[in-house]
Amino acid sequence: MSEVKRSLLVAAFFYFFIAPFFFHPDIKIIYYLSQFFSHGVFNIYQYIAANPDKALLGPFVYPPLSYFVIGLIHTVVNFLAGPGFTPWLGMGNDAVDVAGIFRYLFLIKTPLILALLATGWALSKVSTRRNLLWIWFFNPVTIYVVGFMGQIDILPVMLTVFALLLAKPKPFLAAVLLGLGGALKTYPLLFLPFLALLSTTNFKRSALIFLAGLVPYLLIIAPFLTTPAFYSDTLTSGLTQRVLKLTLPLGFMKNLYLVPVILTILALAAGSLHRGQIHRLSNYWLAASLLPIVLSHFHPQWLLWSIPFIILRSNWLSLLIFSVSAMGTILLFPDKFLTWGLISPFNFQILFLPAFANPLLQSLAHSVLVGASLWISVCALFYSDRS
Prior knowledge:
Number of helices: 19
Distance between the termini: 26 Å
Strand order of the largest sheet: 1-2
Order of helices and strands: HHHHHHHHHHHHHHEEHHHHH
Shape: globular
């Protein structure tokens, strides 16, 4: 048996085994809102705004393709889970003491685990780096985000890795995948300029590659652009704006937004220093996805966006420090669902235990994470020529 097949089988067994035993409410909220697609609701943003009584768990905050994809998956999961599944989705975030909870968790995480395995297969085609798949499947961030929390971020992550795989032979198709990824979660759109700049030295071809990624995204969100709730809950939501919170006051009520500054520098470096050098693509995607995250009050699942590219480009020491500081930052959030709540299906009373919150220790862990991220990004951009 090949090493790739062995790692895929071991990972499949591991993730399917742990899936039923860990709970985070985010995935239940997404499935609850996406169920309305099977009821004929196309514009979920407008529907929730017009029917606040249906917004039991809040508005839908993701781009529309997430709604369509999870809505289709819900139809299958609902059939397999039985009559109690959809009512459970509408219960509160602490609804874990219910019959069938382990079956529900297993079924709603199964599509995400399949996407995780597909991402691993694609990574094995991108690089033959030793132990790459073992690190991808069994690093703390991947286990936590996919196995424990069950976050849908693995879906756009899968598309970005497949886009990386296709970037050299088929850059236009890679761009389309990024556009589709952006319609699931917006961040893959950050990768488009680097794909366009590094895949060719021809300006016209670069522009066409960029448009090839932008067009599918615009086509998917176009029907919702006249919906005010789409702007407030998705395009300009607090989650979207959070990456712009890092500012440098300039006086006279003006601020310098540092994340756009960093992204502009990265784009100029790609266009000026490494034009047409497609083998550097994952380096830029690493920095473009990682730096805006760690320089904000990030959600744990956002770190998964960068993990494939960190694994491709970093040494074990950098990855170790990154992982330890990342988990330290996450576990010290004042959120019980990130710690005790994860194992609440075993005993719902564990939700009454206090979180591990410690602002000082969390700030220290986050500071180490930022330092490790800057080091990893700089080394990948300017000291790595691995193909």
